[in-house]
Automatic annotation (TrEMBL):
Alphabetized UniProt keyword annotations: FAD, Flavoprotein, Oxidoreductase
PANTHER family for this protein: 2-MONOOXYGENASE, PUTATIVE (AFU_ORTHOLOGUE AFUA_1G13660)-RELATED, TRK SYSTEM POTASSIUM UPTAKE PROTEIN
The UniProt record lists the keyword ATP-binding: no
The keyword Zinc-finger appears for this protein: no
Domain Phenol hydroxylase-like C-terminal dimerisation: residue ranges: 422-611
Domain FAD-binding: 6-379
Species this protein is from: Bionectria ochroleuca (Gliocladium roseum)
Pfam families: FAD_binding_3 (PF01494), Phe_hydrox_dim (PF07976)
Record protein name field: FAD-binding domain-containing protein
Gene3D superfamilies for this protein: 3.40.30.20, D-Amino Acid Oxidase, subunit A, domain 2, FAD/NAD(P)-binding domain
Matches recorded under SUPFAM superfamilies: FAD-linked reductases, C-terminal domain (SSF54373), FAD/NAD(P)-binding domain (SSF51905), Thioredoxin-like (SSF52833)
Length: 612
């Protein structure tokens, strides 16, 4: 018997669970399968970049993770002096100040997975089935264009428990099989993706000769910066990155320069052990002493830098995470970019399934995320080469790596690795026909088409509560019309806002229908003194709800608060207080359209191409 479902997700790692979180928000019938019988219990990824924490916060559980994680404050650079002895040569902020309200942090991947699992366990539409993997895939091409059809048929097999970190558990070799029919399918099943192989999609790139060991330990050391993120370049023994973890743990990424394989060959991991890895660490950190009594996890890896030549098939089956891009883990991008992939994708799939959006938006996943993956691989090539290279002995040493150049690369890379700098190009979801984006461009905090909407403090008009505007942009499946109305005590600004307010309440207008269907939510931020106006001076569309009740937390003032000062939102966003502007954000908080406050035709033209 075939069970029909909306979405099948293969892989219950961070990318798969992010996909499941969106599925839970939209309430689409979803099955997640994973050959592992448990979530990750130790090791693996641990870095959370600023944009990732913003996303987790928008689902409602980012605060818990952020409090539990270790927030990274500082990066210390250690390089050899003229005598070959490592010295601290510089310090910089780990997270670029003011780029986000959240700092880069580290926490065990298993804890992140647990938060996701708690989020998705209540909706009955989402089922996570472990110890199960796909065994067969069929695609009926004649049904691809039929939105009501289930063109994908997958045979699932419950079999032996996959080894987790080399440790096996109870076995179930029953071979029990089941069949599901799917409207859509996502392969989040890692670098050796079964889904990718079945689709005939190839990985392009190369395996490098760089081999690294990783250890999570409770260190005993006289090294003074063990609780800071550090890069340590020794004169000839290799390089270490130090990452201070939660619970007193420290992660060491240790270059195993003596285990470099021949070009084109794969490293034999059996040659690695905690003893050989830590011996390399002691050589690199000399003359400082380091030892440990507790090692929670270790592994050895060879750096590979590859990107898939396609991210989707028929816009029905998609790949995300390590299934489409692999790279070194030292920049903390693997788990982050993987989650961002499925965060970009699944609201689109769910919107199509729910008949809220047109299927043409599905093609934007491949164009938006493959561009990011290519940028990631290019950055990783530069970063890994400089990280693994021998420090230059002097200015004439062309074979060595300049430590000043390494620091500049690191600083510039921090903008990219934060996830904040991602900018999607023009497509049906990023409209270049609105007001030219240059009028709104500001460093980091400004409003730019194709970039995520940054947060800034505002004051609630109804009760003076200081609120981060980013908190109004929840991951709940809604589009937002964010209106910067300007100085509403001025006649011209009030006229513009009233014209928009009338359009939002017109019974048969497209914008009104979207509000009635709970697809679009208007939000207003004005630049007048909060005490000079009243909530009911504003158009009713900004505080009324479908059921007739009032929502008091969608009208805000860019004004001082009693206890948290002034947020200066207009200044941060680069918005003129006289002319103002209107911004349409997608359900993933990226800016799709910008224009004049009362450009109703522009708003409807953009939205009607996307939404039904």
């Amino acid at each position: 018997m075939v069970e029909n479902i909306d979405l099948l997700i293969v892989g219950a790692g961070p990318a798969g669970l992010m996909a499941a979180a969106w599925a839970a928000v939209y309430g689409i019938k979803t099955k997640v399968v994973d050959k592992r019988t448990t979530k990750i219990e130790k090791g693996h990824a641990d870095g959370l970049q600023s944009r990732t924490i913003e996303i987790l916060h928008s689902f409602g559980f980012g605060d818990g993770i952020y409090k539990e994680a270790n927030r990274l404050q500082e990066v210390c650079f250690w390089n050899p002096d003229g005598n070959g002895v490592i010295r601290r040569t510089d310090r910089i902020a780990d997270t670029i100040p003011k780029i986000s309200r959240f700092q880069q942090s580290v926490i065990h991947q298993g804890r992140i997975e647990q938060y996701f699992l708690e989020f998705v366990q209540h909706p009955p539409e989402v089922c996570i089935d472990r110890g199960v993997e796909p065994a067969g895939l069929e695609i009926d091409k004649s049904l691809i264009a039929n939105e009501d059809a289930y063109p994908i048929t997958v045979t699932l097999k419950r079999g032996k428990e996959a080894l987790v970190d080399g440790i096996g558990g109870a076995e179930d070799d029953s071979g029990e099989e089941s069949v599901v029919g799917c409207k859509y399918m996502i392969g989040c099943d890692g670098a050796h993706s079964w889904v990718r192989e079945k689709l005939g999609i190839m990985m392009e790139g190369a395996q490098t000769e760089s081999v690294w060991g990783v250890m999570d330990i409770l260190p005993i050391t006289d090294f003074p910066d063990i609780r800071s993120r550090c890069t340590i370049h020794s004169a000839s023994a290799g390089t270490i990155m130090v990452i201070p973890r939660e619970r007193g743990l420290v992660r060491l990424y240790i270059q195993l320069a003596h285990l470099t394989p021949a070009r084109g060959e794969r490293f034999d991991k059996s040659n690695g052990s905690p003893e050989t890895i830590f011996a390399a660490a002691k050589r690199i950190m000399a003359p400082y002493d380091i030892s440990y009594n507790y090692c929670e996890w270790w592994t050895v890896y060879q750096v590979g830098q590859r990107v898939a030549n396609a991210f989707a098939k028929y816009d029905r089956i998609f790949l995300a995470g390590d299934a489409v891009h692999t790279h070194s883990p030292k920049a903390g991008q693997g788990m982050n970019v993987s989650m961002h992939d499925s965060y970009n994708l699944v609201w689109k799939i769910a919107s199509v399934i729910k008949r809220k959006a047109r299927p043409l938006i599905l093609s934007t996943y491949a164009t938006e995320r493959r561009a990011v993956a290519l940028q990631l691989i290019e950055f990783d090539r530069r970063f890994s080469r400089m990280f693994s290279g021998r420090p230059a002995k002097d200015i004439a040493d062309e074979a060595g790596i300049s430590m000043e150049e390494f620091k500049r690369t690191f600083e510039k890379g921090n903008i990219f690795t934060s996830g904040i700098s991602v900018k999607y190009g023009t497509n049906v979801l990023v409209d270049s026909m609105g007001k030219p984006e240059v009028a709104f461009r500001m460093p980091f905090g400004g409003l730019q088409l194709g970039m995520r909407f940054p947060s800034s403090q505002v004051a609630c008009q109804a009760d003076a509560t200081p609120i981060q505007l980013g908190d109004a942009l929840k991951s709940d499946g809604l589009w937002r019309l964010i209106v910067f109305a300007g100085e509403v005590t001025q006649p011209l600004a009030k006229e513009r806002l009233d014209r928009l307010g009338d359009a939002l309440l017109q019974p048969h207008s497209f914008l009104r229908r979207l509000q009635q269907e709970v697809t679009l939510e208007p939000v207003l931020v004005h630049a007048s003194s909060r005490q000079s106006v009243e909530l009911f001076d504003f158009p009713k569309a900004f505080y009324s709800k479908k059921d007739g009740q009032y929502d008091y937390y969608r009208v805000f003032a860019d004004d001082a608060t009693y206890h948290h000062g002034h947020g200066n939102a207009y200044s941060n966003y680069g918005v003129d207080k006289e002319s103002g502007c209107a911004v349409l954000t997608r359900p993933d908080q990226y800016i799709g359209w910008m224009g004049e406050v009362d450009d109703v035709k522009g708003m409807e033209r953009y939205l009607s191409a996307i939404l039904r």
